[in-house]
Automatic annotation (TrEMBL):
Pfam families per record: PPR_2
Protein name: Putative pentatricopeptide repeat-containing protein
PROSITE patterns to which the protein is assigned, alphabetical: PPR
Domain of life: Eukaryota
PPR repeats: 50-84, 120-154, 155-189, 190-224, 225-259, 293-327, 328-362, 363-397, 398-432, 433-467
Amino acid sequence: MAATTSFLHMRPPPSIFQISKLLGSIVKKKHYATALSLWKRAHSSGFTPSTVTLNILINCYCRIGQMDFAFSMLGKILKYGNQPDIITLTTFMKGLCINNMVGEALDFHDYLLAKRFQLNEVSYNTLINGLCKSGQIRAAIKLLNTMKRGVLKPSVVTYNTVIDGLCKYGLANEARDLCSEMIHEGIPPNIVTYNSLIYGFSSVGQWQEVIQLLNEMVLNDINPDVYTFNILVDAFGKEGRITEVHAVLAMMMKCDKRPNVVTYNTLMDGKMRRVDEALDLFKEMRCKNLIPDLVTYNSLIDGLCKSGRISYVQDLIHEMLDNGYSPNLVTYNILLDAFCKRQQLEEAIALYKQVEGQGVQPNLHTYSILIDGLCKGGRLGTALKMFHNLLINGYCQDARIYNIMINGLCAEGLFDDAINLLSKMKENGCFPDSVTYETLIRALLGKGENEKGKKLLLEMVARGLLKR
């Protein structure tokens, strides 16, 4: 940082073009806070931003989730008598999407059209991508159709984005129809289109469609890439079809496509019940000079923990750190689960405190693991305290956490407390599911509380959670 700030005190002083160029290079390295800090120093030294500078700052604020500051930059563009350009508008749209404000991004799109701003293909693709990633596939299709009726026609990138979204939400047949429509519009599918469709059909086991797609690729002179083969390896692996996995790997080598880290991660994930084979694959990776990533380490740590070989885990974590990877929340959740299952509750609580101390935000899965472990380990009071803190912090809408606590109370014979918690659950607007009722009914009937169990059974039927 010192070197970059000294740049501001050069004689003659740098131009705003040079400052913007430096800011841009810092942003390319994803050092958004550093870029913002540098600009604050530049601004206090009397430098006036250009539209390019402001676009860079808008991007920084969007990337760190400070949308209010991003919009204040838009105000400064107008203050300096300039009009926001297409880069500014697209950056805003992308910022809203990556900050889970897709509805606001749509409103912003409508506002821009009303003000007669001209959007380009990148703007539309950005918004369509945001809609697809947030599960709003119908809205994405509607926007695609709007493009088709306008001057700005959708490209293969636009179609691919929607096709991929449809496939990821299990709508492969609709994606296939959209691909046919794309071809009819004179836009040939590319490798990205085919990979999305192959993923969509293989994930639902429609292998005839997959074979047909692979044949189409050959006819269209499109060669499968590593990603294509990885999709097939993953799908066959999940179905336990090891013979087909080996056949795909053989075909991969025949096509002169080398397995990458993702391929090995997929193979390891499919062999986690046979941890020795996964460790052999890990050694093979290193022999081929493939650097393991965080997914690789987490898969191995999970397999070692589940096979009871926790003594090996510490060495793996040290290696992971040496390779520049810090444990993430997935890593911590795996270790917490292992400690809880082995009733090493003190170690689990210490790890949980370490996670919080390192600024890693636990998620619902973290709390579920820990509360379940505390309940099963005879630490009901500690579990209840953590549970109530969760409710205070806004986790009162998820049935899973209630179910764990209700099961813990029932296991201790505290049926009235469990039933009261069911009432509290309803008061908080969280709908009990079949697991909630089954846990309570099984416990009540097991202790001869037949009337209470029968009452809950009738309630379960009335809510449509059990067929008569």
